[in-house]
Amino acid sequence: MTTEQWRSARLHNLLERWQCTRQIGCTQLVAGPTNSISDVAGVRVGHVTLAEGDVQTGVTAIVPNADNLFASPLCAGAAVLNGFAKPMGLTQLDELGILQTPIMLTNTFSVGRVYTGLVRYMLEQAPEAGREQATINPLVLECNDGYLNDQQAFAVSETMVHDALAAANTSFERGSVGAGRGMSCFGLKGGIGTSSRYIHQLDATLGVLVLANFGRLSALRLDGMALSEWIEPCLTQPTAQRDAGSIIIVMAIDAPLSARQLKRIAKRAGAGLGRLGSYWGHGSGDIALAFSTASQPCHDVDDSHIEELLCASAEGCEFAVLDALLQATPVQGFRGHSRSTLSDVLDKLAAQHGLSH
């Protein structure tokens, strides 16, 4: 068998599995019941989506639990894989190892308004913050959706922060919604994706949510296989994407881990990005964050006990990005730019190979 025949056979096998299961990728660990960050009890997600002409953007809220986080913060750790980013609240979180607000995601130019909206929301729970009490540390993370969205429209408002938080639920949409509306990934439509992994040895669940907006098509690997030469002819527009645009990775874990250990787990998300072909390009802001929802005090457990959580971080991140790519719907936006979806491309390739769903 020639190299080309071997590659064609591998592609055919991948497309066969896609048509049968509507999923791609091989797992080592077991997914949670819904394969979602909400498999970690108490975690909810809400979106506000703007989709009109040149404005293709939004806000996504990740709510760790129903408690007042300012009064009862959670242990957290973050890893900056590449720092081409404009987050707010990350410096103090890294210094103190605590999360004291919900996590908000949006586009780069909307960080300021979302920050103010989140402060106003938290003041409803802590009216003396910044006066008799310490100031609030809102966590707002962003990606640049400027290819599909006119960021200079400043379309995101403070009110949308409250609306996204109010909409937070254990069941939520993925793909081209909320902050993910205008995002691109590997030259395809990106956005919101999620996954979860259950670790039997610890009786623990690790849930992941990503805002995927990174990667160039020539680097994309699915099951370790480069597909750009087959994908490119299926696209309606040239890809026009470098590995620059960013990804935000948020992890929830129900084990009582320390901030140091959560930071180690967050860092392993980079291995999941690498499996997909990302090398954290020059202009990409790649940030991973992990928090613990455990009710008991967080503490250092024996590091040997977190081995499977490190594996779950890498695998969960990889599959959350794949979920974002496969759940996305096509979007046409700013200056007529558009992005095709991976699911549509795989269906076209399957039809070309005589396969049908």
- Identify low-pLDDT runs: none
Global morphology: globular
Task: Using the coordinates above, name the CATH class.
Answer: Alpha Beta
User: What would the average pLDDT be, to the nearest integer?
Assistant: 94
Strand content: 15-25%
Spell out the helices and strands N to C. Answer: HEEEHEEHEHEEEEEEHEHHEHEEH
Structural class based on helices, strands and sheet pairing: alpha+beta
Range of helix content: 25-40%
Q: Please tally the helical runs, counting DSSP H or I stretches of 4 or more residues.
A: 9
What's the CATH H-level homologous superfamily?
L-amino peptidase D-ALA esterase/amidase
Widest sheet: strand order?
4-3-14-13-10-9
Cα-based radius of gyration, to the nearest Å:
20 Å
Main sheet summary: 6 strands, mixed
How is the quaternary structure best described? single chain
| Ends apart, CA distance between termini | 28 Å
**CATH topology descriptor:** L-amino peptidase D-ALA esterase/amidase
Number of domains: 1
CATH architecture: 4-Layer Sandwich
The count of DSSP E runs of length 2 or more, i.e. the number of strands, is 16
Pfam families: Peptidase_S58
Family: Belongs to the peptidase S58 family.
Protein name: P1 family peptidase
